[in-house]
Specification:
The chain has 717 residues and is of the alpha+beta class. It is 52% helix and 19% strand. Among the domains are: 26-93, Alpha-Beta Plaits (2-Layer Sandwich), CATH 3.30.70; 240-327, Calcium-transporting ATPase, cytoplasmic transduction domain A (Distorted Sandwich), CATH 2.70.150; 419-446 and 547-661, HAD superfamily/HAD-like (Rossmann fold), CATH 3.40.50.1000; 447-546, Calcium-transporting ATPase, cytoplasmic domain N (3-Layer(aba) Sandwich). It contains 28 helices and 26 strands. The protein is elongated and about 110 Å long.
Length: 717
């Protein structure tokens, strides 16, 4: 009889209730510009001031904030507005998509590794008594206890090898797990036979030791290959999950899947456009940097096309829907990324190449040993024992650890230096690159505008006073010029979407905005804003993107290494060329769209390193032979990258290349150690001088040598 304190718990499972409540109360929001403890405190304190917010926690490594609320329908808008007012870019993520397909493989391997290690130590303790001279019934009893521990353990812990081996054999193929499985099964089977017939020797400890060391290699390998989710999944999570639909003059918040082509949605200030469509009413400025990489906001008015994922910097406007979901521009980029990601899986690693030769050779040696000793002595038990010893001694434990051991050491060293490796195979690919392609905005530059030419005196103070009333990036740069000065009074402010601001500053009519709106001729090749003070001639503010301090030195080091350096940008060709000249980059291409970036990267051949940070770079990052992104990159760009630069220092790119060359040398040395070990051990096993137990000990020794060689990477520059 089951007693429940709450009648509803009987009708609705407790787990389901928890999931439903969590979906109603939890918001997951990406905040890509958060970078320090000060940011964390500012965000959490600010959000906790909102009505309806029960808890707010920032995850600095994921650059996300999780908000627990009371379930009000308007709470998401309030949270996004608050984050925008605090100065943080923010966009909601879809919890359901981010929660899909959790990776349980690593946890399963770790559990099996622990079980195998525990059983191995216990069986070895029992074996000590046998080695010490136990005979007769005592020896048989110890062997049976060992069997009771070892056999269930092998059935459970060796499942990854058995399943992979069976999958290969079903299609009449061989892989590394076939000889591994045979060695484990033959060692266990021979031990069980010897135990049942009161034999002197059983090798349960050898079978368990073999399983333990192979699981260790498999776990290390998995850790280096599966550190994060697919970039395509992260991109899908970037899609805006809900929108504000206009119907009969009323605004209602609905899920994206409830919208239809032809309906109208409202895009408020600071919100991302949820669909692709045409502007039906209003005018504004859009931040399209995630889509195009262009630093400057894009002005839109009635009839202009807008795309999902772009950010509204100006007044609210209305959009008639033309595409939803899979038909949007963001979905097209997601598909490009998913397609490009598959090209990297075609790369054959050193371990895979070795496995193609190793697996059939091991089977031939073991089968040859069995036939020879069977024909030579007629003793089947002896022939099986020697064949088992050959299988164990040639078991690819050292070979299996050759790459993972190096990868683990390199991953740790690079992490301490400020680099996270997401894809172990990329370290091998990095050795062969001949071209480095940089995105401009946010990668070589900070993405923040610097004023390079401006008026001074009272004119500057008037401009800064008006600019302080706007959130436009250029206005912020102008306002910063008057930092520390007392600003003038501003009245009668009017914002003209996509054009600029006008107001009375100190009783004088002033306008600040685009050249065509002011009525003057723009300067060629510069980002600019113009100031018109009543009765005076217009004056210009000229801007440039700020170059990162480490950019020039990083480019120089890569060129000294003999690599071709290319810069791509969504900005104009003139602005792109001017920055390239400052950095010493000979090859620079401007006005590039996301799909064109992928085509350009692929046109340079199969040895390209792509470095980028934005949504517009994601397809190129996924399609490049090797890719890197700074920690300030959006989630999708980091997920598409093989390396993430946790420390904002581009010189680390050259460091990664240098360390990749050292790592490949260690991998080749490890293969040499494994081959040398086999060259000595295999003849010993073939002539019958190695029992399965001695074979397991020799195999363990080779694995230790491989691990010690990998540890050499912790030293040196």
């Amino acid at each position: 009889m089951t007693v429940a304190s709450c009648p509803a718990c009987v009708a609705v499972p407790h787990e389901k209730m928890e999931q439903t409540v969590a979906a109603a109360l939890t918001l997951e929001i990406s905040v890509p510009t958060v970078h320090c403890a000060g940011c964390i405190g500012k965000i959490e304190k600010g959000l906790m001031q909102l009505d309806g917010v029960q808890d707010a926690r920032v995850n600095l490594s994921l650059k996300r904030v999780r908000v627990q609320s009371d379930g009000q329908s308007s709470i998401e808008d309030a949270v996004l507005d608050k984050l925008a007012n605090l100065g943080f870019e923010a966009h909601p993520l879809d919890n359901k998509i981010l929660a899909q397909k959790p990776d349980d493989i690593s946890r399963g391997l770790l559990i099996r590794l622990g079980v195998a290690g525990f059983a191995m130590m216990n069986v070895m303790l029992l074996s000590v008594s046998v080695w010490a001279g136990a005979e007769g019934a005592t020896r048989d009893f110890l062997h049976w206890v060992s069997a009771a521990i070892a056999l269930p353990t092998i059935v459970y812990t060796a499942q990854p090898f058995f399943k992979n081996a069976w999958s290969a054999l079903r299609v009449r193929s061989l892989n590394m797990d076939v000889p591994i499985s045979l060695a484990i099964l033959m060692a266990a089977g021979l031990s069980l036979y010897e135990t049942a017939h009161s034999g002197e020797h059983a090798y349960f400890d050898a079978a368990l030791a073999l399983t333990f060391f192979l699981l260790a290699g498999r776990y290390l390998d998995h850790q280096t290959r599966a550190k994060a989710r697919s970039a395509a999944i992260e991109l899908t999570a970037l899609e805006v999950p809900c929108a504000q639909r206009l119907r009969d003059g009323q605004v209602e918040t609905v899920d994206i899947e409830d919208l239809h082509v032809g309906e109208r949605v409202l895009v408020r200030r600071g919100a991302r456009v949820p669909v692709d469509g045409l502007v039906a009413k209003g005018a504004s400025d859009l931040d399209m940097s995630l889509l195009t990489g262009e630093t400057m906001p894009h002005s839109i008015a009635k009839g202009d096309a807008v795309y999902s994922g772009t950010l509204n910097l100006g007044p609210p406007f209305e959009v008639d829907i033309t595409h939803i979901g899979k038909g949007t521009k963001l979905a097209e980029i997601t598909q490009l990324v998913a397609t490009a990601e598959t090209t990297k899986t075609k790369y054959t690693t050193l371990a895979d190449q070795a496995a193609r030769i190793y697996a059939p050779l091991v089977h031939l040696l073991a089968f040859g040993a069995f036939l020879f000793w069977q024909l030579y002595t007629g003793d089947t038990r002896l022939a099986i024992g020697i064949a088992t010893a050959v299988l164990i001694i040639t078991c690819p434990c050292a070979l299996g650890l050759a790459v993972p051991a190096v990868m683990t050491v390199v991953s740790g060293r690079l992490y301490r230096m400020g680099v996270l490796i997401r894809n172990g195979a990329a370290l091998e690919r990095l050795v062969d690159i001949d071209t480095v392609v940089f995105d401009k905005t946010g990668t070589l530059t900070t993405g923040q505008m610097t004023v390079v030419e401006a008026p001074n005196g009272k004119t500057l103070l008037i401009a800064a006073s008006l600019a302080a009333q706007s959130d436009h990036p250029l206005s912020k740069a102008v306002a910063k010029l008057a930092h520390g000065q007392k600003l003038m009074a501003v009245d009668n402010i009017v914002e003209h979407g996509g054009m600029g601001l006008e107001a009375d500053v100190g009783g004088i009519a002033v306008r600040l905005g685009r050249a065509e709106w002011i009525g003057c001729e723009p300067h060629e090749g510069y980002v600019q804003s113009w100031l018109q003070i009543e009765g005076d001639d217009p004056v210009a503010f000229l801007f440039e993107d700020t170059i990162k301090p480490s950019a020039k030195d990083a480019v120089l080091r890569l060129q000294q290494r003999g690599l071709k350096v290319v810069m791509l940008s969504g900005d104009t060709q003139t602005a792109t060329d001017r920055l390239a000249d400052k950095l010493g980059i000979e090859h620079a291409i401007g006005a590039v769209m996301p799909d064109e970036k992928l085509q350009i990267v692929q046109s340079y051949g199969g040895h390209v390193l792509m470095v980028g940070d934005g949504l517009n770079d994601t397809a190129a990052l996924a399609g490049a032979d090797v890719s890197m992104s700074p920690a300030s990159a959006i989630d999708a760009a980091r997920a598409a990258s093989d390396f993430v630069l946790i420390k904002d220092d581009l010189i680390l790119i050259d460091t990664c290349i240098a360390l990749s060359k050292s790592a490949k040398r260690r991998m080749l040395e490890n293969f040499g150690i494994a081959a040398g070990y086999n060259a000595i051990a295999i003849p010993v096993a073939l002539i019958g001088l190695a029992t399965p137990l001695l074979a397991a000990l020799a195999m363990s020794a080779s694995s230790i040598c491989v691990s010690l060689n990998a540890l050499r990477l912790t030293r040196g520059k």
